[in-house]
Every structure is written in structure tokens, then in C-alpha cells.
Design goal:
Strand order of the largest sheet of chain A: 1-3-2
Oligomer: homodimer
CATH topology of the largest domain in chain A: Four Helix Bundle (Hemerythrin (Met), subunit A)
Number of helices of chain A: 10
CATH architecture of the largest domain in chain A: Up-down Bundle
Number of strands of chain A: 3
Shape of chain A: globular
Distance between the termini of chain A: 31 Å
Order of helices and strands of chain A: HEHHEEHHHHHHH
Largest sheet of chain A: 3 strands, antiparallel
Helix content of chain A: 55-70%
Largest interface: A-B, 24 and 24 residues
Structural class of chain A: mainly alpha
CATH superfamily of the largest domain in chain A: GntR ligand-binding domain-like
Radius of gyration of chain A: 18 Å
Chain lengths: 228, 228
DNA sequence: GACAACAAAAATGTCGACAATCATGTTAGA
DNA sequence: TCTAACATGATTGTCGACATTTTTGTTGTC
């Protein structure tokens, strides 16, 4: 899912996750305006909360806030998309290195438990849970690597990846298939750092290759509603 | 300086910059508690503003906020320090690539103008301006590269670098000397991408090598005030 | 004298109301 | 009829007051 720790993530984080999920499920399209009052009513919270959540989402690159104008779902261009995946490979490689060098006792059991949840959600066709858990797998890796810095960096990159995927995917959603996650766990369990790095690299390349990053999707901004 | 654009950065950003400068000048040490009301009085703004600024600083990794406990200047460990410089090299390399591939007309003049300011501040011994401009040089590069994503990523990394430098520097502050910046501009002007990448790499290695990243500085947290 | 429970103080968290700003619709003038 | 200035409505931005939580200081008992 979206954030790693469920220990007191604050009520605003829950709103972030729900908006993130709406974006991932394409219920919220890039360019859509997010009115504060409207969100406050939907989630039944105060406007201050919504404002908090929007600020978080902005720092994660999911929404763009124009002063005195409002918040919009971001529309990353292809160059940004390439950068995001470029750095995501770098960050996740570092995560795998860290995790391999000093792996805690409960790391493998937790990874396998998570994988089981992924497979279960995948089997019953629960796309919401599948999306949540796919991202959550990578977040869990960062968490187990024991670096809050890598974790926060990765959360940012995964948020952006999700949005980019909805904008530029060619065919059906790839969903970060559980099988590739399983392969990675397998290499980690075998204490095979090189193999783990390769599995991660291949996995991320696979995700990126499902996208069509040849040209920018036209930016429409405010015209969106009228033209669709 | 701290943020690139001076066009409507919001009043909260100014507070961020002043706190960042205080940290860079070692007037605020890692672990120091930042009381909201106190800051509100110092800067003569409302507490909501301070809260806004603290949230930004947290997302930049400069302060750590403990729910219901308060905000503290962060104390990054050596592993985080290494990660920060590792990724900073990656990001800045990407910036140089982007800048080289499609360089705008006013890029070189602006870089040289900035360099002149750096030399001037350095000559008159204005450490505050020197720190500001040293970070600002890198931010300007990212801005000229035309990627808001790289810019925001770099701001985060530079903030963290500054804090790390104050914690782990061996001797005197290196200050991102203007000469190495000049060498980089020189390579960019010559359209020498490989040379520019090497100049940047060397520059960042130089900064990192001034640090002693062999062991964590002991974490004292709340005991700090009593022991100092 | 030491520990535990309780009470007071201080700091953070939250919310609603008001002010400033921008977008839209209207009207007056050429 | 078209343009431009104005007025209106809607939306975001800001602030101060109140509620909650933590910390500190005190007191009473063992």
C-alpha cells in the first residue's frame, strides 16, 4: 500500500491514500481539479485536514497546487517519467544492497506474508488491494532495509510511478506481478546480492517497458472537462 | 540560496530558508527542539505559518516531527549521510546531462552572474551569503535543466547535505568553493558533457571527503540541553 | 527516603469563522 | 455588436480560540 507504517500515520495520511488509490484506479484523471470543500464533504473531515493531505500529496508529486487557484492531479511529462523510473532503479538497488548486507530475522517471513496477501488479492481479482499491495511490497523492502531516508524517497517515487503508469500505460495494467516479487524474495533468501539486484532491475524495467514514453500526452488543464 | 524561484514562494518558504541558514551556520544544532510558539514570536508570524514551515522542513529532512511531542532538528546517521551523497551524485549527473542536451540561451549568462555573486560574497567574507549562494548554484543548474522534478529532488538532497555537513565535517567548512563551480561552467560552455560530468562528480566527492563518516555521532535527543 | 498516583502547566493538535483573491456574469459605453 | 469596466459568486488563504496530549511538579503513602 501507500505508506509503510500503520503506527500513527495521522488521519491525513488516510486521505492521501484514498486519493492515491483513486488516481491509481483511474477514477481521478490527471488534470482533475480537487476542490477543498468538496473533498472535506466526501471524506467527512474538516477543510484543514484536506489542506494537510493536499500538501502531502503535492510533496509526493501527485497533485500540483497553484496558489489561489486550487489543487489539480499532476500531469507529469515523459521526461519526468523517465527520470522517475531512472531514480527508482537507483533507489531500489540501494534498498536491496542494504537489505542484503544486514538482514533482520523477521525480514523474510514478513516478505513472504506480504507476498501471500498479494497472491490472494490477485487470485480473487481485487484490483484495489492488488494495487495497494504491489506498492506496499516495495515500501516494505525499504522499511526492512532500515533506512527512513530510503523509505521516504521511495514513497515519493512510487507515488509518481503510479500516476505515470495511469497516464502512459499501453495495454492492461501490469500490476507489479507477484511472480517477479517472488523471484526477488528468492534471491534475497539465497543471499545472492547480484541476483537480487538483477531481479529488481528486471522487474522495474518490465514495468517501465509496459509504458509508451515516446510522446507527451497533451496538456489540457482547465479545458479537460469540456473536451471529454 | 535555498529555493530556486523567487516568484511567489510563499511567506512560509522564507521561514524555511531562515531556519535552514541557522542550521547551516550551526546556530541551530541537530537535536535542538523547535517550539512553535517560540518561532512564531521570533519571526513575528502566526503559529499556523510556523507549522506550515515545519512541515516543509520535515519533508526536506531538516527537522523531525514527533506527534504531540514537537519538532527537532534532525540528526542523520552516517548511513543516511552516505545515501544522500550517493543520490546527490546521481541527481546532479542527470541535471548536467539534461542541461547539456538542450541548453537555453540565457543559461550561461545566468550561471556566470551567479558565480560572480559567489566570488563577491566569498571575497568579503560573508559566510551567510556564501552558504546561500553555494546551494543556490546547484539549484540554479537544476532549474536551468528545466525539470521541476529534478529541482525538487535536489532541494531535498541539498537541505540534507547541509545538515550532514554541519554534523560530520572534519575541519573548516568547504563551502562548495566557487572555483570548482567555475570549472563546471567552463566544461558546460565548451559543450563537453563528459568533462562536465567529471567536474561535477569531482566537486561532490570533494565535499563528501571533507566529512568524517566513519561513525555515528552519539544520539542524545532530549538530554542535549542538560549535557551541553 | 523512594515510588506511585494525582494535579497543574505547557505545548501541540484541531476546528470554525473571517479576509483576500480569482473566476464568472452583467451592464454600460462606444 | 463588441469591448471594457464592474459587480457578484465561489474558492482559497489566514488567523485566533478551544480541545487534547504530554510533561512537569506535588503530594501522599508505603
Amino acid at each position: 500500500m501507500y505508506q509503510g507504517k500503520e503506527a500513527v500515520p495521522g488521519p491525513a495520511a488516510e486521505i492521501c491514500e484514498r486519493i492515491w488509490l483513486s488516481i491509481a484506479e483511474r477514477r481521478l484523471r490527471p488534470g482533475t481539479r480537487l476542490k477543498e470543500e468538496q473533498l472535506a464533504e466526501v471524506f467527512d473531515v474538516s477543510r484543514a485536514r484536506v489542506r494537510q493531505a493536499l500538501a502531502m500529496l503535492e510533496s509526493d508529486g501527485l497533485v500540483t497546487i497553484l496558489p489561489n487557484r486550487g489543487a489539480f492531479v499532476s500531469e507529469p511529462g515523459v521526461d519526468e517519467a523517465r527520470d522517475v523510473f531512472h531514480f527508482r532503479r537507483q533507489v531500489e538497488a540501494r534498498v536491496v544492497e542494504r537489505l542484503s548486507s544486514n538482514i533482520s530475522e523477521d525480514a523474510l517471513p514478513r516478505l513472504e506474508a506480504h507476498l501471500a496477501l498479494e497472491r490472494e488479492a490477485d487470485a480473487r481479482g481485487d484490483t484495489t488491494a492488488t494495487i495497494r499491495l504491489s506498492g506496499g511490497f516495495h515500501m516494505l523492502l525499504a522499511e526492512l532495509a532500515g533506512s527512513t531516508f530510503l523509505t521516504s524517497m521511495l514513497r515519493d517515487l512510487i507515488s509518481r510511478s503510479t500516476l505515470i503508469t495511469t497516464m502512459y500505460r499501453r495495454h492492461s495494467h501490469h500490476n507489479c506481478g507477484p511472480d517477479e516479487h517472488a523471484a526477488l524474495i528468492d534471491r534475497i533468501r539465497a543471499r545472492d546480492l547480484a541476483g537480487a539486484l538483477e531481479a529488481m532491475e528486471q522487474h522495474l524495467r518490465h514495468v517501465e517497458n509496459e509504458l509508451d514514453l515516446t510522446e507527451d500526452v497533451p496538456v489540457l488543464r482547465d479545458l479537460r472537462d469540456a473536451l471529454v
